[in-house]
Amino acid sequence: MRFVLEKRPAPSRLMLGLTPILAVIATMLAGGVMFWALGANPVEAIRTIFVDPLFDPTFASYSRPQLLVKAAPLILIAIGLSLGFRAGIWNIGAEGQYIIGAVVGAGVGLAFYPTESRLVFPAMVLAGAFGGWVWAMIPALLKTRLGTNEILVSLMLVYVAENILASVASGLLKNPEGRGFPGSRNFARDYPAASNLELLPGTGMHWGVIAAFIAVIAAYVLMTRHKMGFAIRLTGEAPRAARFAGVNPTRLVVFSLGMAGALAGMAGLFEVSGPAGQISIDFGSGYGFTAIIVAFLGRLHPIGILLAGLLMALTYIGGELAQLMLGMPAAAIQLFQGMLLFFLLAMDVFANYRIRLKTREAA
Amino acid sequence: MNLFKTLAVGAALAAGLAGTATAQDTTKVGFIYVGPIGDGGWTYEHNKARLAVEEHFGDAVETVYQESVPEGADAERAITQMALSGADLIFTTSFGFMDATVAVAEKFPDVKFEHATGYKTADNLAVYSARFYEGRAVQGTIAGHLTDSNIVGYIASYPIPEVIRGINSAYIHAKKVNPDVEFKIIWAYTWFDPAKEADAAKALIEQGADVILQHTDSTAPQAAAAEAGNVYTFGQASDMSEYAPMPRVSSIIDDWAPYYIERVQAVIDGTWETADTWDGIGPGMVGIGEISDAVPAEVKAEALALKDAIASGEYHPFTGPLNKQDGSAWLAEGETADDGTLLGMDFYVEGIEGEIPN
Amino acid sequence: MDLGQIDPILLLASLMVAATPILLAATGEMVVEKSGVLNLGVEGMMITGAVVGFAVAVNSGSPAAGFVAAALAGAGLALLFGLITQVLKSNQVATGLGLTLFGLGLSSLIGKPYEGIKAPSLGKLDIPLLADIPVLGPILFRHDPMVYISLLIVLGVWAGLKYTRAGLVLRAVGENHTAAHALGYKVIRVRLAAILFGGAMAGMGGAYLSLVRVPTWVEGMTAGAGWIALAIVVFASWRAGRVLLGAYLFGGVSVLQLNLQAAGAAIPVEYLSMSPYLVTILVLVVISLRGKHGAPGSLGRVFHATT
After folding, report:
1. For A269-294, how does the pLDDT look when each residue is reduced to its tens digit (9 = 90+)?
2. Residues B52, B174: one domain?
3. Which of B40, B208, B242 sits opposite C218 (nearest CB)?
4. Is the ipTM of this complex over 0.90?
5. Contact C90 A348 (CB under 8 A)
6. Is B147 among the domain residues?
7. Rg (CA), chain A
8. For B174, B277, B347, C186, which has the most beta carbons within 10 A of its beta carbon?
9. Residue B267 resides in a domain
């Protein structure tokens, strides 16, 4: 007698909705044990992470908008990634595309310093998207022309991008008035025309948040209503059938990698001109990798990604509050996030498979 | 745009009021760290000073901290949350937190902020830093005496004024006691990467250096020197006394405790004012760690005499005659460097070989 | 600038030490990828190995015990990855990234009591006679035991993959899991074994950092070494011999640039640092120009037995 997994013809809708909730509960239990072992009150710790950012009278008015700020780049990048992932195209180099987008966009902005023209910010956004797109086109072209593995090329290009970032932060884009320290001029503080500030104070809404919402809606429409969305889904689910149906694989690769790159590049630009403020050596803070996690937590579905991005942001901000209010070490929060991911990913199995008890050995 | 700005100011004021409303009888002091408190160097010392504040004031002061805060967007949020939580005084302890600290200070006019190693001040934002180059002068003196190969290795982090000052100060004083001394400098482009720091130390040792100075934060170079044997090192930021008496023969210790205690007291007394503090050995912000017995007694005496001369203000480590690397005159006989030049230092003094990157 | 100050013999010897952690981790990851699994959690397993190895070595006074414990710790973390990806069939890329996060957090919690402590020394193992050979002796035969062990492991992996039945099965599973399953091989079990091996190797690589190369425990001390190991596997196009070459090349570039700087050469550090990755991309392009894919056919795909 043993358990076997039986693949469902289509993921169970009930389970798709239920498993994230189960995973969060399981994380709370396991995390609670960890917090208890560290000498903290587990209930208080869990409440601080999941509830305080939303409802605590002292913090909520600030943290709620911050959730959007933190989630926006994750969602924007994850939406782009999900297009390729659904078609079986594995771009894991979004971090590099994010960095290059920020560098190119910031470079364009700084080239016009100190203009007051209203055109400079839109030009930077375009340049950021272009930078990310170009960086993603390298693996795309190598894949379509030569059949080179895009997972690995895109990952290698992250390291290259990080070195380019370090180079421009302490060279080409260095703030000439920065007293010799590495880092560019601060867009948010010293360059109003090129800055991406809150559009309405206290809401957290900046152009990047708006772009993320637009991306969610556009991706939803694309995947459900557009021919390209159909081609993507078909290629992912039945590659051979897709070829018979006349889907052009080259176009698909170029489209999905290009979109992912452009969105990641834009995310980088919105971040550098707003919340981060400047190009610095440590600008790449791993959003590109975290977004991969967000894409999978959201089950590669636009709405799912929106929710997953917000959940990730919640654990970040709640984790910060737990450090601040309870003196929790940063490492405990990292471990807690790792647990959450494991539970969410592990419980995916219930959505995609049926678990059967078999009394005799399967053939 | 103007409308947004007006609104922004209004919201900021409201937020600022909310921040102070939660403040209680005890004074709450916050610390934002760039690294983990266990880095054994920079952040470790700041945290040690935080614990000293707790011990000094007992129940009158409550401290909070957040470690490993990335520079950039996350920093501004971390500082804001700390202000919202009712902190009366917040120390942000990395240069990269500068603009974030300035931004949050604008929003919370009633909270006091102190930013380490930066240069932007406001009514409620003070800056503080230490004259580490004074300690480097003492190190340079010891290094110049100790080296047999006349090659001193220097592991530098980033080519910023603070690091360049340290190299110049150490070189000037090593040269003074040993005219044949030569400096080999490696730019590691990191503050903290133990494996790379160890490799850098090994590369220097293999090329003949028998004294290693470091301006990076981990103990890895100490360990590499211990492995090689017959190499002298100095602790950086922290005493690193676990490597004494050899290879670590002395150290520069960032002792933030006296300053933190003084500033917290000022907040309690209501006498806190913005300031631009740049203290050295004299006020105790830069400490010279115990000079071990591996150093000959007369060298030790000379080093301590130099330390005392610097502490009393009788001697300035950058005293002319000094030329720049290209041979052009910098300081005339008896002239001392002004703080402005030191703060923006982007040149080597005469005698150092190689170029500063970028 | 005087390049004559660089002693090539010492340079090569220290290059071998610098390369050993990434060599161990990359060899392990290569076996994992050969079985068709992509584990991006190398960094997390390495740093867990670093801290556990250090803690055990300090408490027992025996570096050897430290390495064994590090291998077990790495394998333990890998088991978690294996269960979630193989049994519960989650996505490998996301799970691997989660593993890195998990490992970084776990290691720093375990490591708190061990900050600022020195490790017991592993000592050198000068191989008698051979160590006295001029030039080659100091380069090759005056290292600590782990350098030799890592080379032996590479040799073993090479021979094992090429000449043994287990190696054949592993490769078959990685190339085409459906076909391998049809032939009666236990795909999941083979992969779990490979994943455990990869974890153990990554753990030992981490312990080499904390016990030999640095040697001390510092939070976050791997500083990206796990990611470099991943790059090396690609550079090596999944061949054991080339993993060795790749690890020495990647380790070599970093040691060389530090040596060049010490000798007074003005070098553009960033460009030199990015060069190994550009070379890796070039290698991938060359492989694909030859009409091969290079990567194991089933790399990263979920296997589910349908019959």
Report:
1. 999 999 998 998 888 888 998 898 89
2. no
3. B40
4. no
5. yes
6. yes
7. 22
8. B174
9. no
